[in-house]
Predict the structure of Transporter.
Amino acid sequence: MEKENNRNDDSAAIRNPGEPKIAVEQAPTEENTQAPNKPGLRIGLSVMVLIVAFVAWYSISDQFAPYTDRGTVGGYIARIAPRVSGQVVAVFVEDNTIVDEGDPLLELDARPFELAVRQAEVDFEQATQTINASSAAIVAAQAKVTQARASLENARTSDARTQSLAVRGIVPKAQAEASRAELNVAVAQVEAAEADLASAEAELGSSGRDNPQIKAAQLKLEQAQLDLLYTKVLAPTRGVVTNLELAIGQYINAGSAAMTFIDGRGGWIVADMRENQLSKIAPGNKTGLLFDAVPGRIFTGTVHSVAWGIDTGRTTSGGLVQNQPETRWFEPARRIPVRIELDGGMDHWPRNVKLGGKVTVVVYTAGERNPSAWIGMGLHRLQSLLSYLY
């Protein structure tokens, strides 16, 4: 019994001295297990704060500083085509040539049309001989009328586009006034030519002017003269010729596009905005524009208009609209084009920017003097500096 008691005492003695030691070792172990959790908690909270801040800014910016990187440079594009058919005998421009209004672009073989004019003149002389009248004065007067009317048609087309650009501030007012003056001159030239023709017709007498054969011959002569003028295709305005698809000797039909013409007097930006960004966008809003072709510089513009609709791509079958099958979890947002004019017009248009170039756009729907606009400007400025790299 004594030995057992001694062993128990010894074992107790062994345990008792070790217990404080074990307790001392366990305390640091608990602290060590808790200490790594505190930095992880702080990092997690920081990430959550950043996510909440990003979502808040994203929703606020969509209303007061909507942004898109899907902007495109737009402009007036015309497919140049002759009004008469014929063989190309001369091409006066090369691809990407800058031309002024009235510069010749191409010329068709005029010989068939010259023969048509001569035939029309002969027919007209025969018609006038039936009443013993002279046709020379009328032929000359009719040629002047045809030329004046063709010039007036070109002047009206050019003036209509110039006045449209002037209303939006793209071209200066002085240029619009000069264009209107040119139109008035063209109108006066037509009136003068028609007066000369009326005077020549008056010499035929009342029976001559009302003669159906003379009227038919006169109309045929005017058409032949007009076709002869159309053998030369001229530049409608100042611009650039591109996508040239012509060669001398090629036969081209009337209305077939021979080249693409970009009007150099007008350009704009089309920004594709998500539908939930359009609630506060309105004509007159100021914008910041960053062209990829001009990194590091922010231009300013003004919202001109918002498109009224887009093509959803839906087709019909048997007169009914087909249902589009859904294959994605999240339907991408639809985007509506917003047209933006560059402030200052074409005089401030960057030289390196081409039609179809990429533009990033920020619209300041609440003005430029508020925190959302300042943050948007700062981020846009940062992006302009980074655009040197990509």
